[in-house]
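FAQ: What does the model actually see?

It sees only this:
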Amino acid sequence: MATRRPLVAGNWKMHGNRVETAALVATIRHGVDAFSVADVAVCPPFILIPLVAEKLAGGPVFWGGQNLSTHKSGAYTGEISGSMLKDYGCTYVIVGHSERRTLYGENDSLVAEKYGAAQAAELIPILCVGETLQERESNRTEDVVARQLNAVIRAHGVSSFKHAVIAYEPVWAIGTGKTATPEQAQDVHRFIRGRLAVMDKSVADGVRILYGGSMKATSAGELLAQPDIDGGLVGGASLSADEFLSICRAAK
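And it is asked to produce this:
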């Protein structure tokens, strides 16, 4: 079985200003310097990426975008292309976050297109999949996650996951303070890996699958101890350097 290096990525969403961000990344960079058990990344709002890139350049922390356009360039007011993110040193970009799917109507087909646009720009997409509370209570979790994965596999092939990260984020646990139990999370992570393994076992063994959904320092240890959970896509807790670094340390 492939050895998977953990990844902890902070999704700052629409938070931050120049002063807060400079202080936050300085503390995170200093804290990450002290250990090397996991890859660490932060995904700030677009407007703060240049500042983050400047503060993190040459250090151990990666950075990325929260979204990208399907287009390379052109008359698309308000959009940001993958090549623009790459130009500012981004390594990762979040694709298909549940807030993009629910608030902005991004369907599976569009998410798959953005995934491809990310890889075409030599970025690593962090593909988000997950079910709503209604879907979980209807025992449709696996059907929903399979559908979301299949859209990408049909468009780009299972081998594309050699250059991607998957994040399982139960929608009912995002920003609600609720967290899936370690067993619930592991069940879905195992399902995702198993589904890929049917098509390509080496890809399945190598792909990193993160848990996203109100992960905190207090819950990170048990979640990250599960065999198929390879890190976290961290929301609110990534805005506190101490909390975020505690999660990063738990990834060992």
